[in-house]
Design goal:
single chain, mainly beta, Methylamine Dehydrogenase, Chain H, four-stranded antiparallel sheet, about 0% helix
């Protein structure tokens, strides 16, 4: 959860940073108007970048990236000078304790905590695990409560792997954390990660014998309401859902969408009841519906949806992955995403119009955006 303070594009100190992680490296762009960008990169050429965190707390900008090298393996590197130099611990930022018998496969998410918890950064990883850093993302410690959970043997691998891909610490309560995983669903801790309980009531799992089991769902992404931390949104492997009670139960809100399958869901950083999804035709037909890419926004908590596609190049048969979309904290809010075909789009008006800012990149795996001070 990056700083939710609103910035106006063009004002002093409000340069926009757009970070794009791909199968073959990282691109970093800066812009004053969120339409015209100057990019550097590729950083880490030929390394996979599945996760990015931009931490603007404490008066400095730290960019953290989850790296995956076929030769050197996975780790987390960070830069405090906008990619001019990078640092990583000699023995790795994330290393499994010897007694687990496990090795890190991929860092799926890097999530800075709220502004009043400086230096706390979370990571969700493959194999399914959650990690916490208290030094700004330089070193991480395994959360044993989730790792030693009795359900672990029953968590399976989604199509992309067995991963904790979303970590949502609550800004209202430091002891409350939500995690979403493939496959396992949503789990919640109310004791700072010491213990975890599944919170999936109402979320479907059509691929299982029981369609609404206690756990085992393949939840693709979850996001939190900015003003009511107990309100959550979820994009499932079939189904878009909303919870008004911290995940205790979920209601289906996908009526009005062209499809209820997809990977990503985003919420507005300041306005309640506003969320964006990018539908995919189906799990067996992984293309935008009818080959027409569209971002769909709700401003009434899922009661209705509006398709936003102005400026998108059509037809489009490449999908948007779970972390390949982001919002910023400017006013109006900007919306950004990249496709597996290597196109990256930016909107400076909440999706009203999109500009293609990059094209022909490798598969886009992660997109992050933030207001920064380049000085």
């Amino acid at each position: 959860m990056e700083n939710s303070e609103a910035f106006t594009a063009g004002q002093p100190g409000s340069t926009h940073l757009l970070a794009v992680g791909t199968k073959k490296g990282l691109w970093l762009g800066t812009s004053e108007d969120r339409e015209n960008y100057t990019f550097t990169g590729p950083h880490f050429l030929m390394q996979e970048i599945p996760s990015i965190g931009i931490d603007t707390r404490g008066g400095r900008t730290r960019i953290m990236v989850g790296l995956r090298s076929e030769h050197w393996g996975p780790t987390v590197a960070h830069s405090d000078d906008f990619g001019a130099t990078w640092q990583e611990p000699e023995l790795g930022a994330i290393t499994f304790p010897a007694d687990t018998g496990a090795a890190l496969e991929r860092v799926w998410q890097i999530q800075p905590d709220s502004a009043d918890r400086p230096n706390v950064v979370w990571a969700g990883c493959e194999p399914i695990s959650v990690w916490k850093s208290t030094d700004g993302g330089e070193h991480f410690e395994l959360n044993r409560g989730l790792w030693d959970h009795p359900h672990r043997s029953e968590w399976g691998a989604g199509y992309g792997g067995a991963a904790a891909h979303t970590v949502l610490p609550s800004p209202a309560d430091p002891d409350t954390i939500h995690v979403a995983m493939s496959t396992g669903g949503v789990y919640r801790s109310t004791d700072a990660g010491a213990s975890w309980i599944p919170r999936n009531k109402g979320i479907g799992a059509s691929f299982m014998p029981e369609e609404t089991p206690e756990f085992g769902q393949c939840v693709h992404k979850i996001a939190r309401d900015p003003n009511h931390p107990e309100v959550l949104f979820a994009q499932n492997h079939g189904g878009v859902y909303r919870s008004a009670n911290n995940g205790d139960s979920w209601e289906y809100i996908a009526a009005g969408l062209p499809a209820d399958f997809g990977f990503t869901i985003l919420t507005h950083p300041r306005r309640s009841d506003t969320a964006w999804v990018i539908p995919i035709a189906a799990d067996y037909q992984r293309i935008p519906p009818d080959g027409q890419l569209g971002v769909h926004r709700t401003d009434d908590a899922g009661a209705s949806w509006t398709c936003l596609a102005d400026g998108l190049v059509q037809p489009e048969y490449n999908v948007v992955l779970r972390d390949a979309a982001a919002v910023d904290t400017f006013e109006p809010v900007g919306l950004y995403f990249g496709t597996r075909g290597g196109s990256v789009y930016a909107s400076a008006d909440e999706g009203g119009h999109f500009t293609q800012v990059l094209a022909q990149l490798p598969d886009v795996l992660c997109v992050r955006a933030a207001a920064v001070e380049l000085a």
